[in-house]
Specification:
Layout lengths: L4 E7 L3 E2 L9 H16 L8 E5 L11 H8 L8 E4 L5 H15 L4 E9 L23 H6 L8 H11 L4 H20 L10 E4 L5 E6 L11 H5 L19 E10 L1 H7 L5 E10 L9 H12 L8 E4 L5 H10 L12 H4 L6 H16 L3 E8 L3 E9 L1
Parallel strand pairs: 3-4, 3-5, 10-11
Antiparallel strand pairs: 1-8, 1-9, 2-8, 5-8, 6-7, 9-12, 11-12
Protein name: Acetyl-CoA acetyltransferase
Pfam families: Thiolase_C, Thiolase_N
Keywords: Acyltransferase, Transferase
Length: 393
């Protein structure tokens, strides 16, 4: 079987809700990432055989197959198809898996995996707002309710609290981790470590006019972050440990990677950044939900014939600080190798774009630190987790 290689990886800097990317239509935002991937790889645009794009809120401006619409808004020829994927927060990580599987099978040679989410323009939860009538209109069907009778709603927030309780994580530990995420992101930003992975974009007003300013620094990073400031944020639930400060930030953004096989490498005439070493995913308890990356990582390492210490860098999505903290506790991973340039607490979590955002950061960080293997995983709605292991080349 052929192998899958990443030859280009890029992302936008994260934009805060109502912030510097909110003037961008998400289709156009994603299209700029597609164009940049082609530019960086030097590929003939006609060689791209598919665009697979993660997006969670596929409604409004992100509806009607956002991947195909992004192709039509880009410089790719209209002969390039596109399809949209929803595996909740892991949507674009799953897009990467689909792209890799396509080139490994030999059915395609060059595929783009990407993700987009404008949480300013298409608010989280927009896809489930149809009014319920006569018991109809809710995603939890009668059969699901019968299977989980004590669960009126699958809640990521409640899952985060449950993970913290199960692993004995106090608010102080979560706040300390959150501060560290900002500190790592501040250092990476000031040292220029994000420069290679970020696509600078002009800032636009709500009507699409350009302001003359350029967006190239993650807007969510709190450069003045302090222990006192984080401690001062109120709890989201009385008696709980989760606050807005130790959870991921609502974010606008797009990201993507170009994936090819050996034939694609030859056709493009480029050197790969990394090789896909392993891909797997796992379903887990949808009630505690966010614990899934733990058994998924154990499963992936076993299938890959590796140990946790074989991995040089980890990217575990910081949906809530309790997730990476519990993951480290359960796996025994070295904290110094985890989210070394900060994570979603500081950089933001643009839902469908986060999968390829994490992979973009991971690939570039491996190169900067001369690491060999990197592992990416993230919790996903419904109690799932994808795991991808890459080898830097």
């Amino acid at each position: 079987m052929a192998e899958a290689f990443i030859v280009a990886a890029v992302r936008t800097a994260g934009g805060k809700r109502g912030g510097r990317l909110s003037g961008w239509h998400p289709v156009d935002l994603a299209a700029r990432v597609l164009d940049e991937l082609v530019e960086r790889s030097g590929a003939d645009p006609a060689l791209v055989e598919d665009v697979i794009m993660g997006c969670v809120s596929q409604i409004g401006e992100q509806s009607t197959n956002v991947a195909r619409n992004a192709v039509l808004a880009s410089r790719l020829p209209q002969s390039v198809p596109g399809t949209s994927v929803d595996r909740q927060c892991g949507s674009s990580q799953q897009a990467l898996h689909f792209a890799a599987q396509a080139v490994m099978s030999g059915s395609m040679d060059v595929v783009i995996a990407a993700g987009v989410e404008s949480m300013s323009r298409v608010p989280m939860g927009s896809t489930s707002v149809l009014p319920a009538k006569n018991g109809m209109g809710h995603y939890m069907s009668p059969a699901i309710r019968a299977r989980y009778p004590d669960t009126p709603e699958f809640s990521q927030f409640m899952g985060a609290e449950m993970v913290a309780k199960k692993y004995g994580l106090a608010r102080e530990a979560l706040d300390e981790y959150a501060l560290g995420s900002h500190q790592r992101a501040i250092a990476a930003s000031r040292e220029g470590l994000f420069r290679r992975e970020i696509l600078p974009l002009p800032v636009r007003t709500a009507d699409g006019a350009e302001t003359g300013d350029v967006h190239e620094v993650d807007e969510g990073i709190r450069f003045d972050a302090s222990p006192e400031g984080i401690r001062g944020v109120r709890l989201l639930q009385e008696g709980g440990v989760i606050t807005a400060a130790n959870a991921s930030q609502i974010c606008d953004g797009a990201s993507g990677v170009m994936v090819v096989n050996e034939k694609g490498l030859k056709n493009l005439g480029v050197q790969p950044l990394a090789r896909i070493h392993h891909m797997s995913l796992l379903g887990h308890d949808p009630v505690i939900m966010l614990e899934a990356p733990i058994p998924a990582t154990v499963h992936a390492l076993r299938k890959a014939g590796m140990k946790i210490d074989d991995i040089d860098l980890f990217e575990v999505n910081e949906a809530f600080a309790s997730v990476p903290l519990a993951w480290m506790q359960a796996t025994g991973a070295d904290p110094s190798r985890l989210n070394v340039n900060g994570g979603a607490v500081a950089l933001g979590h643009p839902l469908g774009a986060s999968g390829t955002r994490l992979m973009t950061t991971l690939v570039h960080a491996l190169a900067q630190r001369n690491g060999r293997y990197g592992l990416q995983t993230m919790c996903e709605g419904g109690g799932m987790a994808n795991v991808t292991i890459v080898e830097r080349l």
